[in-house]
Amino acid sequence: MASHIVGYPRMGPKRELKFALESFWDGKSSAEDLQKVSADLRSSIWKQMADAGIKHIPSNTFSYYDQVLDTTALLGAVPPRYGWNGGEIGFDTYFSMARGNASVPAMEMTKWFDTNYHFIVPELGPDVNFSYASHKAVEEYKEAKALGVDTVPVLVGPVSYLLLSKPAKGVEKTFSLLSLLPKILPIYKEVVSELKAAGASWIQFDEPTLVLDLESDKLQAFTGAYSELESALSGLNVLIETYFADVPAAAFKTLTSLKGVTAYGFDLVRGTKTLDLIKSKFPKGKYLFAGVVDGRNIWANDLCASLSTLETLEGIVGKDKLVVSTSTSLLHTAVDLVNETKLDQEIKSWLAFAAQKIIEVNALAKALAGHKDEAFFSANAAAQASRKSSPRVTNEAVQKAAAALKDSDHRRATNVSARLDAQQKKLNLPILPTTTIGSFPQTIELRRVRREYKAKKISEEEYVKAIKEEINKVVKLQEELDIDVLVHGEPERNDMVEYFGEQLSGFAFTANGWVQSYGSRCVKPPIIYGDVSRPKPMTVFWSCAAQSMTARPMKGMLTGPVTILNWSFVRNDQPRFETTFQIALAIKDEVEDLEKAGISVIQIDEAALREGLPLRKSEHAFYLDWAVHSFRITNSGVQDTTQIHTHMCYSNFNDIIHSIIDMDADVITIENSRSDEKLLSVFREGVKYGAGIGPGVYDIHSPRIPSTDEIADRINKMLAVLETNILWVNPDCGLKTRKYPEVKPALSNMVAAAKLLRTQLASAK
Length: 765
Fold this sequence. Notes:
Layout (H helix, E strand, L loop, with lengths): L1 E3 L11 H10 L5 H21 L5 E3 L7 H8 L16 H9 L9 E3 L6 E3 L2 E2 L11 H11 L4 E6 L1 H6 L2 E2 L13 H18 L3 E5 L9 H18 L3 E5 L7 H7 L7 E5 L6 H8 L5 E7 L9 H15 L4 E5 L18 H5 L4 H15 L5 H16 L6 H9 L11 H12 L16 H11 L5 H22 L14 H6 L3 E4 L6 E4 L2 E3 L3 E7 L6 H8 L7 E5 L1 H6 L9 H21 L4 E5 L14 H16 L7 E6 L8 H6 L4 E4 L9 H5 L7 E4 L12 H12 L20 H25 L1
Parallel strand pairs: 1-12, 2-6, 5-7, 6-8, 8-9, 9-10, 10-11, 11-12, 17-18, 18-19, 19-20, 20-21
Antiparallel strand pairs: 3-4, 13-16, 14-15
């Protein structure tokens, strides 16, 4: 019985790639150094899978930034502003597209489906001159083969690539991106031809857009594309991989009718309804890659249940046509549980990271082939039983309180317009008030202080003194820059979700459970294993300390319940909304304590609210109802004079703008500049927004420093569609990933632009 892995984490067990990338970007190491670290990681990954007995091992899933940007490089689809003149795309052009450079901004970045992983959005139009400009897929296949590992090269499928793209600036928004298929398919044919010549016997096309609600013309594009590729693919086994959700019936029919395709991969963890389609309509003689091991969470597989599912599928497709697989790439989970030497042993027994999931896949394949490892299955069953019966999972008081929330919609008693008037009388802010989103640069010294405190190398008194000094430095800087509403910079926090999870019951934490978010940015999601509550205040001490350092308003900084949920590894033994309501109650307690302590502006970030939106439209309303309700729970009890902010970033918000309005926040700051001001289009189309709003005026994920005139131009575009009295001026997101030599001039220019516009508006009266 064969086994398969859709994809694997790239960063390495100790984030080796992250540090190599940042060293290269900072000019401290060479391209050769970066390439060596990368080659060592790939070699280790391929060997690990081969040693575990995996038959279908992926290649070309490694990336220096993301797989969609890799495909843009492969196709030579470089926007003209980067000055690329043809030939093989090198690091300078590649990283300029991802991060921008001193003279031009980066391309848009957005979330990869409903995950916290990001990709760089291709900018396409009728005048793009596609060319075969990156041979990475072929080179990595050859690299693995030289190591004795015959891999399955993985490519982002041509139709999904175009559907995930956007019309370039200056191209009509109605331009059909799928009309570019005839231009890119010849390049795909070249790649396939080279892979065949190199000895490849399998090839995997990732076409995850097949799980979306696609119109008939988009489904027909799949039919046309693979018909065109059929002759080039002849002699290869071709796998079309889907993931993240059920494949709709119409898409399933299209997929299983594609010419030249010999295998289909399905996510049978999040796409359980696909099982019914497989049982009734799976084509004879084709391979089924059954994704029964969860690639997006860290819970150990229920091997007995998965084996039962696989035995049913074996009866449908045949023993020789069934391949055991992960549900998605393992990119979305942590690397190796072996590295967690301090994790509670009972909780650890409930978990499986990427390395363990490889073993689970192989164990299931062997069991199907009649070689069941009874000891392994027995240990797994014991861990499943332990988790179900453990008293640490359940808190009846929390469950009762969360259940009672359904009896109210938790709206503030006064409408937002009246609240804003009351808040302005208290805060006395200028028009176009300036603020930042929360975090300030995390310096090497600051990280050292936190690390030494955790390791008990410095006392609590020394730690508090160091953090207060950092807060004071950030406060003074903001006052010097003349920012209106301040933040304390979050020096006590390594990660916005991890910080809160460490102080809430029902959470567990890893030492090395890092997951890539984008580029070199890694996060360490907490594990929600049980019912959630707040034992004591979490941020009040630091917020009060910061407020005592200034007469200006100081924001209390919290992470919202939906974002904590979506950026954690979440328990899978109860509905997600129940867990979110529990978190909302904990955040509500914190909001009310901040208000009692005199904090007048409280930001409750919901950066990931849009990220969690289900991929199928039929499921949107239910999700948005409980997600928005959860946010309102957190702040429904505050006074009118307490100003509630929220923040959202790096997703397409236009389609949920009415739900954002329904959150009833007093002020929302929202990513805008990196996405080419896409957000403003909803207001041009007539959506009325009465609360305060701060569309980001510059991209913080690029080292580039915008000029005062550039920011002023952005603000003017906002003023064309938004009322002056509701507009705030702020960056796209938090400043944690930037350095002070970038932050200071960028914020200085931002404040100067706001003042320039204030003067112009005053003189125009």
